Amino acid sequence: MNFKTIIAALAVALAMPTAAQAQGTTNANGKAKKVRWTRMAARLDDGFFATAEAARIGDNLLFYQHASGGWPKNMQLQAPLTDGVRNKIGKMKDGERYATIDNRATTTEITYLARLYNATGDAKYGDAVARGFKYLFDAQYDNGGWPQFYPLSEGYYTHITYNDDAMVNVLKLMRDAAKGKAPFAFLPDSLKARAKASLDKGVDCILKTQVVQDGRPTVWCAQHDERTLQPAKARAYELVSLSGQESDNIVLFLMSLSNPSQEIRECVENAVAWFKKSMIKGMRIERFTNADGKSDYRLAQCPQGDTPCMPLWARFYTIDGNRPFFCDRDGIKKYDVSEIGYERRNGYSWFNSDGMKVLKRYKKWAEKYGTKQLTAEADNRRPRFTFLLFYL
User: Fold this and answer.
1) For the chain: N or C, fewer Cβ within 10 A?
2) Mind listing the pLDDT tens digit for each residue in 166-196?
3) Distance between CA atoms of residues 365 and 12, nearest Å
4) 344 annotated active-site
């Protein structure tokens, strides 16, 4: 076998295996690594969608799609559909809390099927995309927010859900669909128009739910009551708060919008001011082995030196005093992460540095839309008067 033949054989072998292998996610033994479906789908290149494996996964998605048009979360939708899986999913579809926007569900599947439709032209995939958008349109409240699950079920699942970027992911989809941005150029104009209207309502909801603290708008809670729009609690350890976790991507989304209104620009300015005020400086996450021999962490002073620690933001801040707090499954606030139990301390994300993305993006955004520009535009809008002095 000559060199060219070997290369050709390798090309064929790499083009047609599992999605994980096609994207270079195999381990040293050649076995596919366990990759979360939503993460894997986001990394697929355009060439993959012309393969038989892409179509197999697409057919999986058609099976998993709920009658309402949405998809479930936290499932490996790319895995082969065994009889056992089909029976299990059939029962799940008849129950509550199946279709959702949580953990990138539904938005991931819509995007995948749109890319597959572009590659194959197969109408069944385009139809599934349209049903997915209809699900999102139907699920949206009149006030512009989205619940975590739809059809609705009792509990905190009905709240407007910013948690884990659920609503922001939907709004990004609507933004791209309204513009006909890839992979949504094929959508009919009527659907693009509905996406634009949905986007506008969603942005209006963001503006209305920005929490006011001491007379000034700040950021958002991870979820808001769908009727009053006020901050709302979810699980026992997810109390009413200002979120240093979810709010960053809300602001980044707002800064991605073309020609933002004055209301959007003021919203961004106030949120950025909160991020600047609320950063935790001079502290770092310190890993250690605790008395039980388990890996643990605590907040510690940064070591002295020329390289400063990356600023941190807490996941939750009190509404009234803007104080970072932490919570165990008993629902009691603590003001030191070391005061909550090992399981919640290590099983939940209490600190992050994502606020730095906001501040970095803001520098560029402010050059075009920031406070100085707002002031200049306000000056230009003021009426100009010419006073004539008459001397007798």
Assistant:
1) C
2) 999 999 999 999 999 999 999 999 999 999 9
3) 46
4) no
